[in-house]
């Protein structure tokens, strides 16, 4: 155990699945950080099949590896790492992220100044182009990238997310049945409902391979189905009944119209299969009105995403 791991300020948690090409550079970017923070690194390998994890374990003896016997999904992976973490704060990183110089110190310094917050950094592509500085959302809880400091940020992407460990457990972390989409959305909105702000730090940033960790070949129909289901769960939990009566029907209608548009474009009925659905056991209604910034919504918003 290194000096930085004896009493960590930050537990850096990285969920990995078949990240042979990207996990190494991610870990290297952490080791290159110049920071006052004491940190530990935890990697949860979700039963990878690429044969690289044994090599990485040998190459990074300072990293705590948790090896799953079978694939459990992104949300469960993060729950396990949060339980194993010793730090007062959790830094959740995707394995396809590389921290830029000064990133860890910028996060640590900001969290010292205002600890009761969720923090993230400005995101860049691997070629250095600005991707986003947080995410906004419309009335249907559809996320979009914020690129201007003038835009109000609703949540930060889980690719790089810093929060107090106790806040994670107060909220309950990522819902395990979400599996791998909208979990960051849920966590940030639940925190905001408790008065905890989401802050984007511009002093540094991170580079993101964009989708290398999940669905590297594009957005699958299965991921789309889970996304619609999970967003409906969030709407049901966070909106009061009087607003759900308005939002739910329009959400389902616009989702159907979007998928119908894709079906016509592709000449296939396949896009109509992942219609929004929720199991009764997943409908736990909590009447909490979050501190959300509502943005103007176009009812034909789906056309801009087709």
Radius of gyration based on Cα positions: 19 Å
- Order of H and E elements: HEHEHEHEEHEEEEEHHEHH
How much of the sequence lies in strands comes to: 15-25%
Average pLDDT rating: 81
The largest β sheet comes out as: 5 strands, mixed
Task: Show unreliable segments.
Answer: 271-306
What proportion of the residues is helical, as a percent range?
25-40%
Tell me the span between the first and last alpha carbons.
50 Å
Provide a descriptive summary of the structure in words.
- It is a single chain.
- The strands form three sheets. The chain has a five-stranded mixed sheet with strand order 3-2-1-4-10, with helices on both faces. Strands 5-11-6-7 form a four-stranded mixed sheet.
- The protein has a domain of 85 residues.
- 34% of the residues lie in helices and 20% in strands.
- Helix 8 packs antiparallel against helix 9.
- The C terminus is likely disordered.
- It has nine helices and eleven strands.
- A hairpin with a 4-residue loop joins strand 6 and strand 7.
- The protein is globular.
- It is of the alpha/beta class.
